[in-house]
Amino acid sequence: MLKREIEICGKKVAFRSSATIPRLYRAKFKRDIFKDLSKLEKSYKGKTEDGEEFQIEDLEIFENVAYIMAYHADNSIPPTIEEWLDQFDMFSIYEVLPQILELWGQNMMVEVQAKKELAGVQGK
């Protein structure tokens, strides 16, 4: 489990990434977070290189991922994504998205390392 505070519009917001995130995401949005994050990461890299804007679907994926990670860190946040987003001014996706992707990537590396160590202990 990894946790990080990211400042959005002058407000510190906690985000948490763990093995629970894919399940929470699937339960809330009926989507696969691995596919969505892969698409979002490709889109982000392409947009920053080409200077293009994100598509609506990419923005929605980003909002969903950010909300689930924020909710996982602090379940006292508003119960709907719309209410949660309402507390912020329009914030730049380019400022927050790289940090969310980095947090997710760090969590994935920790999980892979833990599996390797477990396999080593079990003699596999």
Describe the structure.
This is Prophage pi2 protein 40. The chain is mainly alpha-helical and 124 residues long. The protein has one domain (2-121). Helix content is 65%, strand content 11%. The protein contains 5 helices and 2 strands, in the order E-E-H-H-H-H-H. Strands 1-2 form a two-stranded antiparallel sheet. Strand 1 and strand 2 (11-17) form a beta hairpin. Helix 1 (21-29) crosses helix 3 (56-73) and helix 2 (33-50) crosses helix 3 (56-73). The two termini are 25 Å apart. The model has no long low-confidence stretch (mean pLDDT 83).
Order of helices and strands: EEHHHHH
Tell me the β content: 5-15%
N-C termini distance: 25 Å
Spans of at least 5 consecutive residues with low confidence:
none
* Structural class based on helices, strands and sheet pairing: mainly alpha
Number of helices: 5
The domain count comes to 1
Biggest sheet: strand arrangement? 1-2
SSE order and pairing:
Elements: E1 2-8, E2 11-17, H1 21-29, H2 33-50, H3 56-73, H4 81-86, H5 93-121
Antiparallel strand pairs: 1-2
Helix pairs in contact: 1-3, 2-3
The gist of it:
With 124 residues, this protein is mostly helical.
Task: For the structure shown, list the relevant keywords.
124 residues
